[in-house]
Give the backbone structure.
Amino acid sequence: MAGKLIDGTAIAAGVRQEVAGGVAAMAARNRRVRLAALLVGGTPAGGLYAQRQAQACGDVGIEYQLVQLSGQTTQRQAIDAIDRLNGDAQVTGIMLHLPLPAQLNAIELQYRIDPLKDAEGVNPANIGHVVYGKTLIAPCTALAVLELIRSTGVSLIGAEATVVGASEIAGKPISLLLAEQMATVTLCHLATRDLRMHSARADVLVVAVGKPGLIGRDDVREGAVVIDVGINRVKQADGSRKTVGDVDFDAVREKAGFITPVPGGVGPMTVAMLLKNTLRSASLLQSIR
Ligand code: NAP
């Protein structure tokens, strides 16, 4: 029997509704929720993404402020822009669009964002809170993965969880959140000797690598929860392009208990979690002001 589809789009719609309610409650107390997004350089993809983000914020009542800087911006100028947003009482959340032009150091800029306004949960102070089990604002993709697993009703307590991919943005924070939920976590990366040994014994398998077809039917345990974070554009036989994840969806669905599609799984949930984090930032700021 085919595994149940985890419908990220539908679950994200629920989260958006919840956020809209929270934003309305803040507004009723004369508190605004405003996300400032820093976009450096002018690629069409970046512009389109910002436009979609503005729409997503608008739909839940979050004000969206796009701060556009030229592609020649220096590190000092980018730091100054972040400092201005940190000090602006009207701005309750800040995010940095990636990728940045080569002359800029993304990590240094993420360090600079006020941890309470860190809507993407990328400041090391926020990652540190996750390590101590006192999560304030966690990285959006990691939160998205956790919510999608929760939606299945499968308990993480004592579960074998394997995370494939160990990046700062995805795999590592996902592992931390799963460990916080008392799963037994194995984190795999490029140097992992026998990936299948780890993936095939997992009750919960999260794949965040960026390699289409990395995980096939034999790499998955019968009945497992499979969360595919990967986003890859692949060329099809007729020359057209299609978006796929890292998991061979059709083959793995036959064996998995639950599985996320790509697109329509982790992607829409990550956007919803950015909105939720933005509301959280505004609430945290309100509680200390
Ligand atoms: P990344 O920074 O390139 O990291 C990839 C990770 O995969 C690295 O830790 C790497 O190991 C590991 N890896 C590479 N080949 C491997 C292999 N054969 N076996 C096991 N591990 C392997 O990528 P990322 O930013 O985390 O993104 C990963 C994928 O998720 C991409 O497709 C990206 O587009 C997608 N993504 C989606 C969302 C979403 O919202 N849906 C959000 C973020 C990312 P090393 O550390 O040893 O190099």
User: Anything to note?
Assistant: Residues 141, 164-167, 169-171, 188-192, 195, 208-211, 229-232, 266-267, 270 surround NAP (CB under 6 Å). DSSP finds ten helices and eleven strands in the chain. The longest strand covers residues 34-40.
